[in-house]
Amino acid sequence: SLLACRDDLPAAGESEVDEGYRRLLGLCSHEYFHLWNVKRIRPGCFFTPDLAGEVHTSLLWAFEGVTSYYDDLMLVRTGRIAPQSYLELVARSVSRLLRTPGRRRQSIADASFDAWTKLYKPDENSPNAGVSYYLKGGLVAWGLDAELRLATGDGATLDDLMRLLWRRYGATGEGVAEGDLERLAAELAGRELRSFFDRYVYGTDELPIGDWCAAFGLGVRLRAARDERDEGGSLTAAPVDAPPARRTLAVRTKAGSDGVTLLTVFDDGPAQRAGLAAGDVVVAVGGQRASADTFSKLVARAPADRPLLVHAFRGGELVVFEVDPAPAPQDTCELWLLPDDALSPAGLARRAQWLHG
How many CB atoms lie within 10 A of CB 157? Predict the structure, then answer.
């Protein structure tokens, strides 16, 4: 069963795909793609699982991540959404990844293997300690698509890799073993792709988003978020200027009637350096009452020449912290289609094939 908010369904007579309906379509697309990628093409250990315990594999990034790449891509390829709408989704994924410090500590292969103890048992430190193989796996799949196209002069794509996986494994009922996917990718590319997999699948190197955007004829900019709800998105053309960086405590919060609870305190951020911790309930910032509406504004407006006093309850005890807010990091992604005349004929053809199949 697919669970969604009833408001995600379009109203009678509505012809535009709004954000809610786009989300529902993406969910349907994701699960439909699983008919092939997971239900037929699947890790060998899933064919005869021991249901009395966990079954571990480092390949979940490929089965969930690749599916996460194709779910929204199929919406634009089938004409359900426009390319600009699709780029908004990609940009938001990049922003969410950049806001996950754990991407520097855990590879998506390890995240796959540790799913039973990490992904399905998250805690307040999960964003600092790990990464989602759905989220980063989808972006790595995008990068592998670019890598295959560039290595073969657009003679092979991730589509071809999926078809090859179907012929070798899905159609035959043979399980995919560790290392099989990179072996088939190298077969299609005509050369080893070990560096790609070592850095982005088994390692924690930063993803070269700019290089992958260039491969697909996209412009990209990273800027500071305007507010806590700003996840970036797509633009119709290259931006002229960037908003000034607001000041932040580097926390994730949840508002309540008794104050603002810190859900996550990000590593090496102003709040953590000052001693604040997840679970603290902030009741005042700079001597003024903190709420869902005022918390970020109070931090942003704090004088820059002296520490900011933050009052919080910890286990029933009122504690005062001196915090030095920092400029918001450049972790908000914006994407746009480069003008046609800025691309070579081969670049134009690659972008068209990518978006329209």
Answer: 20
Integer angstrom CA distances of residue 265 from 19, 99, 129, 269, 303: 29, 12, 12, 8, 22
What would the two tokens of residue 329 be? 């990091």
Averaged pLDDT, 45-66:
94
Alpha-carbon distance 186 to 169, whole Å?
Answer: 17
The pLDDT tens digits of the residues spanning 153-209 come to 999 999 999 999 999 999 999 999 999 999 999 999 999 999 999 999 999 999 999
Q: What is the helix (H) or strand (E) element at residue 300, kind and residue range?
A: helix 295-300
Pairing of strands 332-337, 233-234: parallel
Tell me the Cα Rg of the chain. Answer: 22
**Token code pair at residue 224:** 């500071």
For residue 14 the two structure tokens come to: 């509505």
The CA–CA distances, whole Å, from 186 to 30, 164, 293 equal 26, 12, 52
Max Cα–Cα distance, the chain, nearest Å: 68
Amino acid identity, position 146: A
220 strand-pairing partners: 335
Q: 46-85 b/e with 16+ CB inside 10 Å = b? A: eeeeeeeeeeebbbbbbbbbbbbbbbbbbbbbeebbebeb
| Angle subtended at Cα 21 by Cα 144 and Cα 85, rounded to the nearest 5 degrees | 45
